[in-house]
Amino acid sequence: MATLQPVPFASTPKLELKNILVMTDFSDCSRNALKQAAAIARLHGSHLLLLHIVPAEPLIQNSLGPPTWEYGDIVRQATKQMKAVENEEILAGIDHEIVIATGSLQPILTSLVKDREISMVVAGTRGRTGIKSCCSARWRKKFSGLRLVR
Q1: pTM value?
Q2: b (16+ CB within 10 A) / e for 81-112
Q3: In 3D, which of 53, 52, 27, 23 has the Cα closest to residue 37?
Q4: What are the structural domains of the chain?
Q5: Neighbours of 71 (CB within 10 A)
Q6: What does residue 107 show for φ and ψ, rounded to 5 degrees?
Q7: What tens-digit pLDDT sequence spans the chain (150 residues)?
Q8: For residue 45, with 0-12 CB atoms within 10 Å meaning exposed, 13-18 middle and 19 or more buried, which class applies?
Q9: 3-state SS string over the chain?
């Protein structure tokens, strides 16, 4: 059996994390993801991009009735919640910006990762299936240097 040798700290390569994207739906899981992303951004001096996605179409909960939400109300509520998150102490001293996008998760995520040169995506999930559905192995191959944290 091989003996493990400690690696001197000075010889480990520095992790370059210029831009970190954290997705939020304002749940407890995404709040934990924000805490982790903020800690990583603070440690590496990274720019933090907070993303909330509003679905383009209403989610119909009852097939017998029409959709009941107003798109403008949903966007206003999301903007209000994002401003509340932005004013929290978690983000103090961290270069950050807020993005509220409309559409489906995978195309928006793909576009932001590519256009904003995202080094790491942080997402809060209750298990592997949530992150697997949007960030499949095939999708991750497009962005070989991308780190995914859940």
Answers
A1: 0.73
A2: ebeebeeeebbeebebebeebeeebeebbeeb
A3: 23
A4: 16-57+69-141 (3.40.50.620)
A5: 14
A6: -65, -35
A7: 567 776 665 655 667 889 999 988 888 888 988 999 999 999 999 999 999 998 877 655 556 655 556 778 888 899 999 999 888 899 999 999 999 999 888 889 889 989 999 888 888 776 555 555 555 555 555 554 555 555
A8: exposed
A9: CCCCCCCCHHHCCCCCCCEEEEECCCCHHHHHHHHHHHHHHHHHCCEEEEEEEECCCCCCCCCCCCCCCCHHHHHHHHHHHHHHHHCCHHHCCCCEEEEEEECCHHHHHHHHHHHCCCCEEECCCCCHHHHHHHCCHHHHHHCCCCEEEC
Q: Residue 49 and residue 79: Cα distance in Å, rounded? A: 15
The encoded tokens of residue 50 equal 């907070």
